[in-house]
Write a structure and sequence with these properties.
The complex is a heterodimer of chains A (408) and B (255). With 408 residues, chain A is of the alpha/beta class. Chain A contains seven helices and 18 strands. In chain A, the strands form two sheets. In chain A, strands 1-4-6-8-10-12-14-16-18 form a nine-stranded parallel sheet, with helices on one face. Chain A has a nine-stranded mixed sheet with strand order 2-3-5-7-9-11-13-15-17, with helices on one face. The chains are: A alpha/beta (408), B alpha/beta (255). At the A-B interface, helix 5 and helix 6 of A face helix 2, strand 7 and helix 3 of B.
Amino acid sequence: MNQQQAPTLTVAEKTLQAQLIAAGTSEAANQFGKYGLPTRRVEAYHYTDLKNLVRDVPAIVSNGEVAHPTPKFSLTDAFEVPMINGDVPSVGDTPDGIIVAHMDGSGLSERDDVLVRLNRALSTKSVMVRLEGNVQPVVHFKRHINGEAAHVVSSLMLDVAAGTEVTVLETFEGSDEAHMANYSTRINLGAGAKFTHITIDQSSKKATHFHTMEYAIGADVELRNLVVNSGASLSRTQMFGRFEGEGTHANLSGLNLVDDGQHCDITMDMTHTVENTSAQELFKSVVRNRAKAIFQGRIVVESQAQKTDAKMMAQGLMLTEGAQILTKPELEIFADDVQCGHGCTCGELDADTLFYLMSRGIPKAEASSMLIRAFVQELLDPITDEELNSKLSTIVSDWLELGEANAS
Amino acid sequence: MSTPMLEIRDLHVAIEEKEILKGVNLTVPAGEVHAIMGRNGSGKSTLSYAIAGRAGYDITSGDVLLDGKSILEMAPDERAAEGLFLAFQYPIEIPGVATMTFLKAAMNAQRKSRGEEEMTTPEFMKAVRVASDDLSINKDMLKRALNVGFSGGEKKRAEVLQMALLEPKMCVMDETDSGLDIDALQVVSEGVNRLRGPKRSMLIITHYQRLLNHIVPDRVHVFSDGQVVESGGKDLALELEAKGYANFDSAKGAA
């Protein structure tokens, strides 16, 4: 085979390479120089061609004065861990069952993925949190970028002890600048853990937001997650997971709320490595104006993972001309006694349903909002924490109102 | 003469360039109940959708006046606010929209467009309780998503419930009897009869004379090939049932 020629690096790629060199990670810098950012020819980035989409990389954040900003999304009764500009916080006293510590480097495992490689190379330290027992308040990681446009690389590692029951919320926000964020969250789930994980991106519409989640899932775990993307001009949220213990069930879900000029990508890649695990994956996108929502879902069932039951569904609503939804399901099944499936529906709001509501006197905009809320509701219903549920509903309502305001 | 509640003047309607209604003339005075009978495919449902303003129905000529005002340029919600109500032949199931939320949204939207105050929750709850008791609608049904998992009879009762709550001045009922057993037909008809009054008119579209035993019309119109071909008193329905539609087709042909 011919020696692959090194690509011509774009300005953004050169900046990234320089940042890798400055961080003293020459090996990573060399490798990055060989491949650069992925193009559409790299299957996992087929719809999110980073080489073309990433135009500018701001300077690596320098931590000076770090003020505590007031987040858009907060709960009255949560244990908050502020992670501002990727810095490691001091949190003072922690409630029972929560231990906050630090470690060197990134929490992510090695993987053939550019965002993972960059996170691993550029994270100098991680916040490490151990959760144990029945952790009462929601644990809220406020991941925030302050100040001028900056490249922030930040890593969080959660160690959820066996039998622990906890809800973890991560919010991603920042000043209204063209930041680039490369966040990671590595989560180890001990046997019997009941873990709810909600991530909400409401970063600046000028920003680029990357978030990689990695789940190592033990036996008899109940895992539920919900990814909400309604910020950033370019975002990619990726979740990698391995089912490593029997008897586990996961509900994985996500919502892209995408408006003019945004490009939001959720990519899921789950591997079943043992018998008797099940997963239901439900991802929804609502897109208006010239914007793009992407869902890629990959389920791998290894040959020994008999009795796997995994069902993946992607549903999209395109509200206006120019809205795009791109979906790619992949199933790789090496076991012979499994139930796996995927489905996809995409379309506009149903005209007959709209007419029915309007024939009762409900104006079109209100009728559309009712139907969009109904479409999203299925994702919010399982979130049992009342305040969390109602604030998630508010994100949807605000998004709808913004659309109505811009349309009129 | 006082202004009729509904006046349809030489209405021509095409769907995808195919003419379905070929000059409908029909007048329903205030307080009267009229029935339209006709076989499948004669254009009865097209008429009801055209009146309500469904998209895809091209009005090529003619006019529809509600209480003296042309409604053809209005969106469906504006027509409803003017007092028009269409009871659907096949009410739409809407998962994720709670029945009560929908009822409240509809009632308040109409009030708002008429410049009235929104209802308070206790007022609303009371109105729903009274109207649903009249129609033997149980609370479980109201707790479900709109029309989701409702039986045929429940869906039709829910339509009449909406009609009772929205208090329209002109009700168009598209085959409200279809899919109903005798008991349900009784309940629905009683519900409709309770809503009859000097300020409310109704246009009842049906295949069968059966419904008209329960809701006795002031006039009956026979519909064939996109036109009204014969009009008469309530006995016309019996004559139609006895002779069949074919007779009326030829009557028109000969005229």
